[in-house]
Specification:
heterotrimer; A mainly alpha (93); B mainly alpha (163); C mainly alpha (86); A: 93 residues; mainly alpha; 4 helices; 71% helix; C: 86 residues; 0% strand; elongated
Chain lengths: 93, 163, 86
């Protein structure tokens, strides 16, 4: 066994141990947990529809409270389009 | 001979209007039902990619240039960012208005009677301030961006398909 | 009661099918078949998102993952070799 394979197996084992332990430490699916309960979630659930006026709370969060995230997402898309067009420009006649 | 067989083209002609109507519905009702600009734009771009696969890239490039699609994409970005900057601009127009970047300046005012109501559980489309306008801008941007990626890739690699 | 049992069965079956589709995407040497396996994995993943009550993510995953990614992969395979080089 080469050293590279050995290092890969060690890394895989470490990642697998982390994943298994984090899966065991998750709180039960669909149940309310008092400890892992940020106040921000309850504020958004209570006030999104009144403050933004949107029925769909997800859109209200994405376009109003977290507008900067959507701006960054749009920038990523613009960069992807520019990269693809620059990359394939040479192949065109 | 670009494009696929007659069966594929017929099925595409039947299925294409439904895909487009569903995608535009998801964009237009983004503040009421699940979805939004990004999701609806992805659905519409999927329908356009179906046209591209069925009819071939040479036929599609004869109909629409990717330069115009780039202009549409930039137009969506400009609309989005100018809607965000209007929030700051309106501070100077209304002295009592507290405006910031990305502030929802259309909600709860009577000067501009568009999208200005607060609808909680009403499914009223005339609500939510600038969110529907931002949905349209992002939807235009995503449609043009995703379709121009697929179109440029398909048209640039067309040389090997003739062999 | 019957509906709850059905939903529990779907919650178990769909992740197993996702793992099977991912395995085939790695295992197959024909790259177009592997791309179709990736597409099937994305479609099952969008079904999983839907039954976990996230319809926003489900629509985006079905549009981008199952359709546009497959189109881009198949265009790339058409421009290069179809068989995987070991």
């Amino acid at each position: 066994m080469s050293g590279r394979n050995f290092a890969a197996i060690i890394f895989f084992a470490i990642v697998a141990v982390f994943l298994v332990f984090s899966a065991l430490m998750m709180h039960p699916f669909g149940e309310f947990d008092e400890e892992h309960y940020p106040e921000m979630d309850q504020y958004i659930i209570d006030n999104t529809q009144n403050e933004t006026g949107a029925d769909n709370g997800v859109t209200g969060v994405v376009f109003d409270y977290r507008g900067f995230d959507t701006l960054g997402e749009a920038t990523v898309l613009f960069t992807a389009v520019a990269g693809v067009i620059i990359l394939f420009r040479r192949l065109k006649k | 001979m670009s494009g696929m067989s007659r069966i594929v083209k017929t099925i595409t002609n039947v299925a294409f209007p439904f895909v487009m109507i569903y995608g535009l519905y998801v964009i237009a009702h983004g503040h009421l039902t699940p979805g939004g600009g990004f999701q609806g734009g992805a659905v519409v771009a999927s329908g356009l990619a179906m046209i591209l696969v069925a009819y071939g890239s040479i036929w599609v490039v004869g109909k629409v240039k990717e330069k115009h699609l780039s202009v549409l994409e930039s137009l969506g970005a400009i609309g989005f960012i100018s809607l965000a900057f209007f929030g700051i601009l309106l501070v100077y127009l209304y002295s009592s208005f507290e405006g910031t970047f990305f502030s929802n300046f259309l909600i709860g005012q009577d000067t501009i009677p568009i999208f200005n109501e607060i609808g909680k559980g009403l499914a009223n489309i005339n609500t939510a301030g600038i969110i529907p306008l931002m949905n349209f801008a992002v939807g235009l941007k995503v449609i043009a961006g995703l379709f121009v990626i697929v179109l440029v890739m398909a048209y640039s690699t067309r040389i090997k398909e003739g062999k | 009661m019957v509906v709850d049992t059905m939903i529990n069965i779907i919650h178990i079956v769909v992740p197993i099918l996702i793992v099977v589709a991912s395995f085939y995407a790695i295992y197959l040497k024909d790259l177009i078949a592997a791309a179709i396996a990736v597409s099937a994995m994305s479609l099952l993943l969008s079904l999983e998102f839907y039954i976990l009550q996230a319809p926003d993510v489900a629509i985006a995953e079905a549009g981008i993952g199952a359709c546009l990614t497959t189109a881009i992969l198949i265009i790339s395979i058409r421009a290069t070799n179809r068989e995987e080089e070991v």
